Amino acid sequence: MTDLSYRMLFVDGVPAGLLGLDELFKILYESECAPQDADIGEKLIRGVRQHNFVPKPAIVAYQTVLEQEYQKYYQQRTGVGEVKAPNYGTWEGIPREQIPWFPTVSPELCDGCGKCIEVCPKDVFEMDEANKAVVIEPFLCIVGCCFCKSACAPQAILMPEKTMLDQFRHGQRHAT
Ligand code: SF4
Ligand code: SF4
Which are the contacts of 5, defined by CB distance < 8 A and separation ≥ 6? Predict the structure, then answer.
């Protein structure tokens, strides 16, 4: 069991659970690394790889997400810029970003009907230029909800198994 922080990020439409991100951001911030530094992406990837596996073909996608996350962290710490760091709240006492509960859309199956957007009580989806539903705010998704999946006739939406939530109940995250 590790004491490192654990956060879930959405990299290229795929959830990625990362260990030690908060610690890495803290170290970079305290070493006066700014989000606009030319080598910040490299430093982030190197740091993340100390505790996580990052597949080579996904490095650029990881780097983009990590830079955005570090930017948010940096702005929170410096208090500069009114960029709203989203507060997704908690579920069972655990930060929402750590719960991998959100829809995944298969673009091949999506017919662009827009039902998911109609039934979703949150702003989780958006239609893209190709008229396909895309998940833009996964952590706004209500944990345990499956409305969009039920409304999607071509079955383009996948939701996680509800039993997955057991490991997060009662404010505990059990090692997998
Ligand atoms: S309900 Fe299904 S098919 Fe319709 S837009 Fe949403 S994902 Fe696509
Ligand atoms: S599961 Fe519910 S809250 Fe989550 S995206 Fe679908 S309709 Fe929205």
Answer: 19, 20, 21, 22, 23
User: Please, which residues bridge with residue 98 across strands?
Assistant: none
CA of 141 to the centre of ligand 1 (A): 16
* Amino acid letter for position 105: V
Give nearest CA residue, ligand 2 atom 7.
120
Cα 142 to ligand 1 centre (Å):
18
CATH of 100-171, one of 3.30.360.10, 2.40.40.20, 3.20.20.10, 3.30.70.20: 3.30.70.20
- Answer whether residue 176 shows pLDDT above 50: no
Q: Which of 147, 149, 158, 164 to mutate to test the pocket of ligand 2 (most atoms within 8 A of CB)?
A: 147
Helix or strand or coil: residue 101?
Answer: coil
Q: Is 113 in the pocket of ligand 1 (CB under 6 A)?
A: yes
Q: Which residue has the tokens 């505990």?
A: 172
Q: How confident is the model at residue 84 (pLDDT cuts 50, 70, 90)?
A: low
